Amino acid sequence: MKNWLDKTILAPVKRRSFMKWSTAVSGAAMASSALPLKAIASATADNNVIASDTKTTWSACMVNCGSRCALQVHTKDGVITSVESDNRGDDKEFGQHQIRACLRGRSIKGRVYNPDRLKYPMKRVGKRGEGRFERISWDEAMDLMADKLKYTISEYGNDSIFFTYGSGTQGYRTDGQHAFKRLVNMIGGYLGYHGNYSWGQIQYALPFTYGTKKPSAFGSYTSEIKNAKLLVMFGYNPAETRMSGGGEIYEYTQALRESGVRTIIIDPRYTDTMLGKEDEWLSIRPGTDAALVEAMAYVMITENLVNQEFLDTYCQGFDEKTMPAGAPANGHYKAHILGQGADKTAKTPEWAAKITGIPAKKIIQLAREIGTTKPAYIVQGTGIQRQANGEQTTRAICMLPILTGNIGLPGTHTGDMPANFGYPVPTLPSGSNPVKVQIPFFLWTDAITRAHEMTDKTDGLKGGTKLENPIKFIISYAGNALINQHSQINKTKEIIADESLAEFIVVVDNHMTPSARYADLLLPDVTTIENTEVSSDGYASGSMGAVVPLVPAIKPLYECRSAYEMCTMLAQRFGIEEKYTEGRTHEQWVEHLYAGARAKDARLPTLEQLRVQGPFQILAPETGRIALEDFRKDPIKHALGTPSGKIEIYSTKLADIANEWTLREGDVITPLPQYVTTWESHLDPKTREFPLQLVGFHTKGRVHSTYHNVPVLREAVMDGVWINPIDAAARDIKNGDAVRIFNDRGETRVLAKVTPRIMPGVMALGEGAWYKPGKNGVDMGGAINSITSQRPTPLSKGNPQHTNLVEIAKA
Amino acid sequence: MAQYGFYVDTSKCTGCKTCQVSCKDDNDLPIGVNWRRVYEYGGGDWVKHEDGTYTNDVFTYYMSISCNHCATPACTKACPTGAMHKREQDGLVVVNGDVCVGCRYCEMACPYGAPQYNHEKKHMTKCDGCFDRVEQGKKPICIESCPLRALDFGPIDELRAKYGDRADVAPLPNPSLTNPSLIIGTCRNSRLTGDETGKIQNPTEVGL
């Protein structure tokens, strides 16, 4: 154990702290602490004293878990001493319950005082990606960036400027991404993207079923669970993805305790959402949920458990009666399930058992239970759709509430992810983007290398039919998608290392991330603890909304500046400072926008009160918590935004797309939601060489790749690949062994967590660990994207990051 | 003598470890020193059927444990200097760092892994029940931090009146050894002390 600690946690920190900090820090400070936290704090404190004694300020944890937890930052003489969360009131009344941060927020001191902090602007001196930089002044940095932007715009055009996906700092309303996009929109715009790595497929696919009138994540609230008689969760795992004590996991467990609703969870992992809170766990092979649904549909249809009246009134395409004109004979759902469709295969429980790994009698039992229990709340998590057939799976799961009419009534849901309130705190106006064409978020590396081939019908462009220019200028703000979070690191690396392709890369961040190493220009952002803001509760707070104040606890460390300050300096260089700032400092924008919010909602306290009292909480209205309630009451008046106005089991638009688009070999798009065997499924012949399925999951120990470089978190949650004892024994792998996971795309090194909590044949690795290049393209950091593929999914052209065949061996 | 203690509800706990980390932050503990640890206890087997399907009887639950401020602590008995002592006013067991010589006998004696040697300070350290916070009328930092509201702290007789008196839950030792001021709220997966169907699944995370 001590050996493991030394090797894994202490050694890198000690070495780094010695190398980087020994000159900056007094010997006494170094000697007093094995960790660099205190050393960094004391080294930087002298120049940054803003108080002569102790004080406490409100801030928040601003990362992409979906929640926005309150933090109370204690400082002494301008140095953070400890961090508490929300401890106001008696915590008894739901809605005014404390927004308690999880372990990530509690460890934020380790992100602020971190040896990886970027301290001043730097420009690259070695080859791109080598990680060699030299310090420059802010004036030099801003001149360089402005010159390169001007050159790019005149040489190629604004459509060659691209912002990578980035959510390392999330929830800013007046800074960050908003500040940069406002600026670039004012100088002619940039190539935008549609979709995102989290929900690429579900948000693209479900509107074909439920229409486009409502936001994509528009299911029922989690609070509705307490009105249900049965709860069925496909991969929904709030304990590891929605961890805030003010958000979904708390609301979910409250609902469960209140109602004692029977809970069935379908997942390849025995997740932390279970632990005895579930009534039944069905382990399922990744990528096969649609087959399970189809077999349940078979049982429901043959045993007369479907709600025929609902299907006739509210839906298109269940049977011949409701098929649109021109649709093929036997193209309806019932025919497909009973084996009368194009594939002539009856979707029996025995058929699905072989695919899913769930015994047929279990499938029958579950189908009867869902078919006879009303109301049933059926929900999915979104790891399920990050698969090669994710669009199909996400629509297929929705078939269960559709077939049983469990929609639009108390205690029901649509099968989507749950809805959240999300108080609408105003944002800095970012203007409109003059460049209208958008690429799918996942195809930005393609837009660097083969832009000339990409069209709406081959690569899912929106807002245009083709690209005029490849991406030449990249801005990565608080993002790690440049290398770490995008698929297939070895391929991405080749593309972004080539200076003739993307000619200039700017990275704006707090830390020297794996992505930052690929910058030509590195700009040090302030952390959220050093910044001022009024944020909202995020997108995973359940039925509780909040207005969340951030008050700077300490002065910006080193030469760090906020994105708004950087953009103001750039605006000067484009002669548009007045237009950009409208005469306001960042603080004045916060005040201005908050005044607007208060004018709209008189319940809000003054800004001064908010900053002293902490987050202002508002419970969602009792009405509007049930998805499609209005449609259920009056399907004519509240027709959905589908071509038929109904729930489209058979999607007219998808039938058109299937005819019009050019797909890769092996890809299919179908008007019905159906199980499709894909590349690197468990049925792929490639299993002879790479026999195990590898999925990613959200580990408690970081949020995507944010917080990865905080030692107390690396200690608290071991980064290990989950492997079943049967698979481990076959390879002589023991718990805690160093292992290598590999396929034809790459190899990563990590420790093994041998556990019965994962089904045989499947492994799971927490995503977001920082890529650490070793020899021959081997990643020593446990980054799952060393293994994943850049092959996009058929419909949304999204990220299939949980579809991987691999082998594992002792390292 | 007053006696304070902890309540840990394993039916609410999701094993998130916020308690462990908030304690570390508040007490400025180095890597390797965890006054609160979260044990992952589980087991179960998989059966593969002829048609390639699987069934299993897998179970897991987490157990957040700090110091149980036992009525008859093993650590104080093992301490040769008297540094490890039980406070008269609240029954909390604390170590006097000025007196401790770092012999680590208490660490060997405690069946709960509570005393933790601090290599920087060269003496033992452990959960002190946040007695300074308790004296101000607050709960310990871990209790207030728990996102699932799975932890409680207070006079042990009051807690027992509210939550019962079980502490014989795996992987904990037999409570008759030290009479811990600890109550475990059980969950559907709970196994009794001495259970042999499961084991601690996260040895590296809890310092084993």
TrEMBL record, chain A:
<dbReference type="InterPro" id="IPR006963">
    <property type="entry name" value="Mopterin_OxRdtase_4Fe-4S_dom"/>
</dbReference>
<dbReference type="InterPro" id="IPR006655">
    <property type="entry name" value="Mopterin_OxRdtase_prok_CS"/>
</dbReference>
<dbReference type="GO" id="GO:0009061">
    <property type="term" value="P:anaerobic respiration"/>
</dbReference>
<dbReference type="Pfam" id="PF04879">
    <property type="entry name" value="Molybdop_Fe4S4"/>
</dbReference>
<dbReference type="GO" id="GO:0005886">
    <property type="term" value="C:plasma membrane"/>
</dbReference>
<dbReference type="Pfam" id="PF01568">
    <property type="entry name" value="Molydop_binding"/>
</dbReference>
<comment type="similarity">
    <text>Belongs to the prokaryotic molybdopterin-containing oxidoreductase family.</text>
</comment>
<dbReference type="GO" id="GO:0009055">
    <property type="term" value="F:electron transfer activity"/>
</dbReference>
<keyword id="KW-0560">Oxidoreductase</keyword>
<dbReference type="InterPro" id="IPR009010">
    <property type="entry name" value="Asp_de-COase-like_dom_sf"/>
</dbReference>
<dbReference type="InterPro" id="IPR050612">
    <property type="entry name" value="Prok_Mopterin_Oxidored"/>
</dbReference>
<keyword id="KW-0408">Iron</keyword>
<dbReference type="GO" id="GO:0051539">
    <property type="term" value="F:4 iron, 4 sulfur cluster binding"/>
</dbReference>
<keyword id="KW-0479">Metal-binding</keyword>
<keyword id="KW-0004">4Fe-4S</keyword>
<dbReference type="GO" id="GO:0030151">
    <property type="term" value="F:molybdenum ion binding"/>
</dbReference>
<dbReference type="GO" id="GO:0030288">
    <property type="term" value="C:outer membrane-bounded periplasmic space"/>
</dbReference>
<keyword id="KW-0500">Molybdenum</keyword>
<dbReference type="InterPro" id="IPR006657">
    <property type="entry name" value="MoPterin_dinucl-bd_dom"/>
</dbReference>
<feature type="domain" description="4Fe-4S Mo/W bis-MGD-type">
    <location>
        <begin position="54"/>
        <end position="116"/>
    </location>
</feature>
<dbReference type="InterPro" id="IPR006311">
    <property type="entry name" value="TAT_signal"/>
</dbReference>
<keyword id="KW-1003">Cell membrane</keyword>
Automatic annotation (TrEMBL), chain B:
<protein>
    <submittedName>
        <fullName>Anaerobic dimethyl sulfoxide reductase chain B</fullName>
    </submittedName>
</protein>
<dbReference type="InterPro" id="IPR050954">
    <property type="entry name" value="ET_IronSulfur_Cluster-Binding"/>
</dbReference>
<keyword id="KW-0249">Electron transport</keyword>
<dbReference type="GO" id="GO:0045333">
    <property type="term" value="P:cellular respiration"/>
</dbReference>
<keyword id="KW-0677">Repeat</keyword>
<feature type="domain" description="4Fe-4S ferredoxin-type">
    <location>
        <begin position="57"/>
        <end position="89"/>
    </location>
</feature>
<dbReference type="Pfam" id="PF12800">
    <property type="entry name" value="Fer4_4"/>
</dbReference>
<dbReference type="GO" id="GO:0046872">
    <property type="term" value="F:metal ion binding"/>
</dbReference>
<keyword id="KW-0408">Iron</keyword>
<feature type="domain" description="4Fe-4S ferredoxin-type">
    <location>
        <begin position="4"/>
        <end position="34"/>
    </location>
</feature>
<dbReference type="InterPro" id="IPR017896">
    <property type="entry name" value="4Fe4S_Fe-S-bd"/>
</dbReference>
<keyword id="KW-0479">Metal-binding</keyword>
<keyword id="KW-0004">4Fe-4S</keyword>
<dbReference type="Pfam" id="PF13247">
    <property type="entry name" value="Fer4_11"/>
</dbReference>
<keyword id="KW-0411">Iron-sulfur</keyword>
<dbReference type="GO" id="GO:0016491">
    <property type="term" value="F:oxidoreductase activity"/>
</dbReference>
<dbReference type="GO" id="GO:0051539">
    <property type="term" value="F:4 iron, 4 sulfur cluster binding"/>
</dbReference>
<comment type="function">
    <text>Electron transfer subunit of the terminal reductase during anaerobic growth on various sulfoxide and N-oxide compounds.</text>
</comment>
<dbReference type="InterPro" id="IPR017900">
    <property type="entry name" value="4Fe4S_Fe_S_CS"/>
</dbReference>
<keyword id="KW-0813">Transport</keyword>
<feature type="domain" description="4Fe-4S ferredoxin-type">
    <location>
        <begin position="91"/>
        <end position="120"/>
    </location>
</feature>
<dbReference type="InterPro" id="IPR014297">
    <property type="entry name" value="DMSO_DmsB"/>
</dbReference>
